[in-house]
Write a sequence for this structure.
């Protein structure tokens, strides 16, 4: 059982106390979280690495899980709910104090070399892809939100077993783990909800324009339950899944960097949805309010249903690409205003934008999330997952050939439904498999996807696995 979060410096809490307004738990024993020999050995490995790096044992540990999104892809930043679950794989950090004004960050993986940064003034160069930036973003977000004049400088050793670049949110898990570690180290009281919100904002330090799903589920995850997470404000509703539902994660082992840069794909999709929202606001006569910058906000203002919005998009927004000149003309703004108001620094050099398909995806996918919660049978859940993948592949264009092939292999191997999960352009699939068929399914996918490629075959054990809904972020402070 978790004990109360430390409250040496209290923040005024105005919300009614609930599961969301409680603080992340602090455990006095690692066995309450890490229940297998392998997980205990991992904790020991991190402890020994910390002792080797800093000459003494850590003061405490912080952990934050990755996640798999069961349905609802690329809709969170448009203001719509999603349905993820936290997974057992997590980011774990051992933490101590060093009494200086500099944080020292190490990793158990020798590939990721030591990073040092100022505890008071954290500089992050978002133009460079650096593993340390994710930790710095979470630390910086907490320090700035708490207005700490003299934050504690930390020694840190990190270990992660969430497959990187896989769509399972390894980077957000680092951000969340860093913020939680800094929060506990500085004796602050922040709720799960507050930490999720500030971590979502913190990712902007590294140039990611996400919507908050990854950070929310990392803090709000519960054992045995998926979560229906809604935004503005963030709230979570536990979702019980039908008996016999088992979710299997398979990593395509395609790094998204092969197909994507933030400006040309992920952040561009955010901007395309924002532009589509602005265009739909004009169609619906609510464009005078420029604060309506998401498709969800426009729908709410118009009081239309999701099916009605789908039909309006089909009849109002032309298919195919829009040039900047066409957009400026239609939105009745100058080219400079288009860039400053509606684009982003990472997308300012893009010349064409697809609005119709992106809006169709968002409204259609958001409707699937609602249907998923009331589906009732495994067969209906699987059908919805297949439909979701089709939307992601054809309308949002965030799949890749390997993901399309892997989802089909999963269906052919006995999955009731299979879809990409995470941002896409590589990474993982999630498949719904009847419990009795899991062993045969794993064997078939291994043979058909992993064993046919020498590099894939070497990595299959860590990249094809069953995951149960896991607990959210927490502190381990051994007595």
């Amino acid at each position: 059982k978790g004990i109360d979060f430390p409250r040496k410096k209290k923040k005024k809490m105005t919300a009614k106390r609930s599961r969301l307004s409680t603080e992340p738990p602090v455990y006095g024993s690692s066995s309450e979280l890490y229940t297998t020999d392998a997980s205990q050995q991992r904790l020991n490995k991190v402890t020994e690495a910390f002792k080797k790096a800093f000459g003494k044992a850590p003061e405490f540990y912080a952990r934050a899980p990755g996640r798999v999104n069961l349905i609802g892809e690329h809709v969170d930043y448009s203001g719509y709910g999603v349905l993820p679950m936290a997974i057992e794989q997590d980011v774990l950090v051992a933490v101590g104090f060093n009494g200086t004004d500099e944080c020292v960050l190490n990793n158990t993986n020798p590939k990721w070399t030591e990073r040092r940064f100022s505890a008071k003034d954290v500089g992050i160069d978002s133009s460079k892809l650096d593993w340390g930036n994710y930790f710095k973003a979470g630390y910086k977000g907490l320090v700035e939100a708490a207005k700490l004049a003299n934050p504690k400088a930390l020694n840190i050793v990190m270990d992660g077993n969430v497959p990187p670049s896989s769509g399972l949110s390894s980077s957000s898990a680092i951000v969340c783990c860093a913020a939680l570690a800094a929060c506990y180290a500085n004796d602050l009281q922040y709720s799960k909800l507050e930490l999720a919100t500030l971590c979502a904002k913190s990712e902007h330090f590294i140039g990611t324009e996400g919507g908050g799903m990854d950070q929310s589920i990392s803090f709000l995850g519960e054992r045995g339950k998926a979560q229906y997470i809604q935004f503005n404000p963030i709230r979570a509703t536990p979702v019980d899944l039908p008996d016999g539902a088992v979710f299997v994660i398979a990593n395509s082992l395609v790094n998204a960097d092969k197909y994507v840069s933030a400006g040309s794909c992920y952040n561009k999709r955010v901007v395309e949805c924002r532009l589509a929202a602005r265009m739909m606001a004009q169609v619906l006569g609510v464009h005078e309010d420029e604060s309506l910058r998401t498709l969800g906000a426009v729908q709410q203002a118009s009081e239309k249903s999701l099916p009605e919005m789908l039909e309006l998009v089909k009849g109002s927004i032309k298919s195919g690409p829009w040039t900047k000149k066409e957009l400026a003309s239609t939105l009745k703004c100058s080219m400079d205003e288009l860039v400053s108001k509606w684009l982003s620094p990472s997308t300012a050099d893009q010349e064409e934008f697809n609005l119709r398909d992106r809006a169709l995806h968002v409204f259609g996918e958001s409707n699937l999330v609602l249907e998923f919660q009331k589906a009732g049978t495994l067969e209906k859940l699987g059908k919805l997952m297949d439909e979701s993948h089709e939307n992601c592949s054809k309308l949002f264009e965030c799949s890749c050939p390997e993901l399309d092939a892997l989802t089909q292999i999963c269906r052919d191997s006995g999955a009731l439904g299979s879809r990409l999960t995470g941002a896409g352009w590589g990474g993982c699939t999630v498949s719904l498999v009847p419990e009795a068929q899991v062993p045969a399914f794993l064997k078939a996918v291994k043979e058909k996807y992993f064993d046919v490629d020498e590099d894939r075959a070497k990595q299959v054990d860590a990249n094809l696995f069953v995951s149960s809904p896991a607990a959210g972020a927490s502190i381990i402070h051994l007595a």
